[in-house]
Write a structure and sequence with these properties.
This protein is mainly alpha-helical. It is about 45% helix and about 0% strand. The longest helix has 13 residues.
Length: about 200
């Protein structure tokens, strides 16, 4: 069949109204597999752009999914809105349970002066809410998180690109002015085991 005949056949097929079908049935897979491309199947992502979700507070995961759905939280490419919009309401608890019950990620190997980051974290009182032993529902674990992810989130809070969720202290005023202090705190937190 020549190129012209192929185009004619394609046009005739399109005119019949036959719709294309996916090669697989997405509903046959657990809903958390949609999240796995970025966050890893077991909640440990390979890229610091995407946070580790393994062992994360379930109330926090649920709140963030719903914030993306409601348009009160955004990310740099809109990927999260696109993905969570595919979830049915009854699938959200399945996703939350899957990631929150996975074994926590391994902490990063300490590099550089971690003590400076720990001192800054303590001096700013961040552990009041974000200490892994603090008993606040909906507050994320920051430990064993990618340092690069934490740095970006702290800068976004500081610069007004990210809002604090309802019921929480506004974070903008709590963030360091200097990027090197932010980097030190993030580096420290990445090395602390998640409990």
């Amino acid at each position: 069949m020549g190129p012209r005949a192929g185009l004619i056949a394609l046009a005739l097929w399109a005119a019949t109204g036959v719709t294309a079908r996916a090669d697989f049935d997405a509903t046959a897979y657990p809903p958390y597999e949609r999240c796995a491309l970025c966050h890893g199947l077991f909640g440990v992502s390979a890229n610091a752009k995407f946070p580790n979700l393994a062992g994360q507070d379930p109330t926090y995961i649920d709140a963030q999914i719903r914030a993306f759905l409601a348009g009160t939280r955004h990310n740099d490419g809109g990927q999260m809105v696109a993905i969570v919009s595919e979830l049915l309401p009854e699938e959200i608890p399945v996703v939350v349970e899957w990631f929150s019950t996975q074994d926590p990620p391994a902490p990063a190997v300490p590099e550089g002066d971690i003590a400076t980051g720990q001192a800054a974290f303590d001096a700013r009182g961040c552990g009041t809410c974000h200490d892994d032993t603090a008993d606040y529902l909906g507050v994320p674990h920051l430990t064993s998180q990618h340092a690069g992810y934490l740095e970006k989130q702290m800068r976004d809070f500081r610069d007004g690109a990210r809002d604090t969720h309802d019921g929480c202290l506004p974070h903008a005023a709590l963030m360091p002015d200097q990027d090197d202090e932010i980097a030190a705190i993030a580096a420290y937190l990445s090395t602390v085991p998640r409990q």
